[in-house]
Design goal:
about 350 residues; alpha+beta; two-stranded antiparallel ribbon; about 45% helix; four-stranded antiparallel sheet
């Protein structure tokens, strides 16, 4: 579990103290606390394209905080994008990127409570640097983060600031996970520190929802790639919402399982993301004892097969696939590998050269 110190705004802290130290008859009585585990439900509701509500009620959650999450759920269900679909658009990169922009628009419009945010959310989402797929390259989330940072520098008092803190924390952590796999220690360390910095800023926002989302994001074992653990820091006393340990907490975990949204695929968007494709590839190579020592992944691309090409085993496939290619780190003749991972998880492995 990844840990980091999160300082939560005064209003949330006051509610927390009433939860951990309930006042009965004028006397404060302590109970063994444990941090609320939303199981990623808050994080997913902000950073994934879905309108599934965050499970409630939460035992021990202060009423005003529960009401805040309820308002978030209601706005999420009622959201309608202002970003128009281009006329004549067909499934492909243009629509995939539009869905990613709508994802950003949704998060801003439903998470923040400032007035007249709908058009501002649409304007930001339309102009922001957003990739429909990162393709396993750290440069892409870093470029998205760079636009958000530049926006904050130009408009330091923007009402989008709480969202942008969370967005930047998420993008920098994803970049750090990618950089960890590439053994780029310097850039990885810098991205990790940026993650911690923006996570802390999000936790200091007075809106309790922002602090809870930051804590739920931070609690995820990984966001994009499994990587080396991020630096941990002890949580200061009173830094998280708490609920009594034991059956109430177990009941909330059961609520999450019961209400967890089913896996949904947006029309035209690849069902297997690049991170999952890499995991599928790793499992396939290990299961089939295929050695890749001395090679590196030189290409990861999303492609389409029209079904006209027969593969060496005689099979034909139609549809989107991830194309991975392994090249030698030191120049050699032949021996390169390529793999096609289709969206039904069919795999075609080819060896190239003599």
């Amino acid at each position: 579990m990844i840990g980091v110190a999160i300082t939560i705004g005064k209003g949330l802290l006051a509610a927390l103290l009433l939860t951990v130290f309930p006042v009965q008859g004028g006397l404060a009585q302590t109970q063994p606390p444990c941090a609320i585990d939303f199981g990623g439900a808050l994080y997913r509701a902000v950073f994934f394209h879905q309108s599934q509500p965050v499970p409630l009620p939460v035992p021990g959650l202060p009423p005003e905080v529960a009401a805040r999450i309820t308002r978030f759920n209601e706005k999420n269900q009622a959201f309608r994008s202002r970003l128009a679909t281009p006329e004549g658009s067909q499934a492909g990169p243009e629509l995939w990127q539009l869905e990613k922009r709508r994802q950003v628009e949704r998060a801003i419009a439903v998470m923040l409570e400032a007035k007249d945010l709908q058009q501002l959310a649409a304007d930001y989402a339309q102009k922001a640097v957003i990739y429909y797929e990162w393709e396993g390259r750290a440069e892409n989330p870093l470029r998205e983060a760079g636009f958000a940072e530049d926006y904050l520098r130009r408009q330091p008092h923007t009402p989008l600031k709480p969202y942008l803190y969370l967005f930047l924390a998420q993008r920098y952590r994803c970049a750090a996970e990618i950089l960890s796999r590439e053994y780029r220690t310097g850039p990885q360390k810098e991205a990790r520190q940026k993650y911690l910095d923006y996570l802390k800023l999000a936790g200091q926002e007075p809106d309790p929802l922002i602090g809870l989302i930051a804590a739920d994001l931070n609690a995820q074992p990984y966001l994009y790639f499994q990587a080396q653990p991020l630096p941990t820091a002890p949580r200061p006393e009173g830094s998280d919402h708490a609920i009594p340990a034991g059956q109430n907490r177990n009941r909330y975990q059961q609520l999450i399982k019961e209400q967890a949204p089913p896996t949904q695929t947006q029309a035209g968007y690849p069902p297997i993301a690049v991170g999952e494709a890499l995991k599928v590839a790793e499992d396939y190579l290990q299961a089939n004892r295929i050695e890749t020592a001395g090679r590196y992944i030189s290409a990861i691309n999303l492609k389409y097969d029209d079904g006209s090409r027969p593969y060496p085993d005689g099979s034909r496939h139609r549809g989107l696939f991830w194309y991975l290619n392994w090249s030698w780190a030191a120049p050699r003749l032949g021996g390169e590998l390529s793999m096609r991972i289709f969206m039904d998880r069919q795999i075609v492995l080819e060896r190239h050269g003599p």
